[in-house]
Amino acid sequence: MKFLLVLFLFLYSYAAIRYHIGKELGRTAFLFVFNKALAWWCASVLLLSLLPLDKLKRFGLTKRATGLFGYAVALVHILVTFYLLSPVYYPKFFTLGELNIHGWTSISIGFLSLFFFSFPLCATWKNYTSHQFFKLGRLGVLLNVSHVFSIGFDTWFPADTWPFYLPPITLIFVIQALLIIVYRYILLKN
Q: Per the CB 3.0–4.6 Å rule, which of 33, 40, 51, 140 could disulfide with 116?
């Protein structure tokens, strides 16, 4: 679990430099930036659960631990997001003070992702050996990547708009997810 703490500190440091300093959000946006790092962290941990067990063991992790931990942190991320959900922090999700189609779409995809992550969670509690439940978790991963893509794709380019030339967290996460998915489902199959 030490690895997960180090991972969070790294991800939060990146978010703090990019948003607090680079975008000059200051301390008043602490919870907003913290939530960005929290989202990135839980999504990254859930991605780790796709890796083969021998790779996870190198970091002292198991598939069950990464899945449970990622799910728990995702719930915290959702609670913080709903606390912050307003045009102040999420202006592109709102039109004239009302949640717009972009906001509804992003939130709906996020909830669908959590829903599909619930199947492997239930399977671990009941000690089911059927892989069907765990396969639904893979759909959760794809929906999670879609959720993040829908939130950030319109801010990815041009690169000269990035604070300190640090890419948006959403872009980094989508690339990291694609790399893990290609590694897990294409390279390991060959």
A: 140
* Residue 57 neighbours by CB under 8 Å, 6+ apart: none
Write out the E strands in 21-83. Answer: none
| CA atoms of 106 and 152, how far apart (whole Å) | 10
CA 127/CA 143 separation, integer angstroms? 25
DSSP type of residue 128: -
C-alpha to C-alpha distance for 53 and 144, rounded to whole angstroms:
22
Closest C-alpha to 137, from 127, 124, 150: 124
* Structural domains of the chain, count: 1
Are residues 34 and 77 in contact, defined by beta-carbon separation less than 8 angstroms? Answer: no
Domain holding 140, by residue range, is: 2-187
pTM higher than 0.90: yes
